[in-house]
Specification:
189 residues, mainly beta, SH3 type barrels, OB fold (Dihydrolipoamide Acetyltransferase, E2P), 3 domains, six-stranded antiparallel β-sheet, five-stranded antiparallel β-sheet, 55% strand
Amino acid sequence: MATLTYDEIRPGRVVKHDGKLFEVVDSHIARTQQRKPQNQVKMKNILTGQTVQKAYHASETAEEVEMEKNNLEFIFQRNSEVWFNPEGTKNRFSVSLDRVRGVEFLKSGTIVTGVYAEETLVYTYPPIKVDLQVTEAPPAIKGNTAQGGNKKVTLETGAVIDTPLFIQQGDVVRVNTELKTYVERVTKA
């Protein structure tokens, strides 16, 4: 495990604080005239979701937890639980919805990346681009297309995104899961 100086504690890092694992959500280094700089950090407990604020002074350090990545197969979501299989096994487990990024673009069988710290799942993230079928698409309306002409369509996972007017029900579209935007049409209906 690496030791981080006060200015290396940034969002996305996982640190140990009071013997528990915390993900750094926000950090801001404050430098005032008469005082030494300090890093004001907001952290979220990985297991409980509780947020904590702490100021790390220039002389303080934090212990960074090493992260591992494993592939997980998405099975289904029910209420606020999301179920996964480690790839190649049948050892199902569930995690809370707040640990799963881009769940609205996951369909059964999709392989996601699980990020672990000390054998605890911190979060998962989907592939950057996924292909999904359009299940509902309103008809294209002629008129003001000076702004590019978009319409909202519903995908097979229930997600709603903006697409160009030519997208129809039954089309398969490619979606960027990070930006949550339409990329291109893969096949026509």
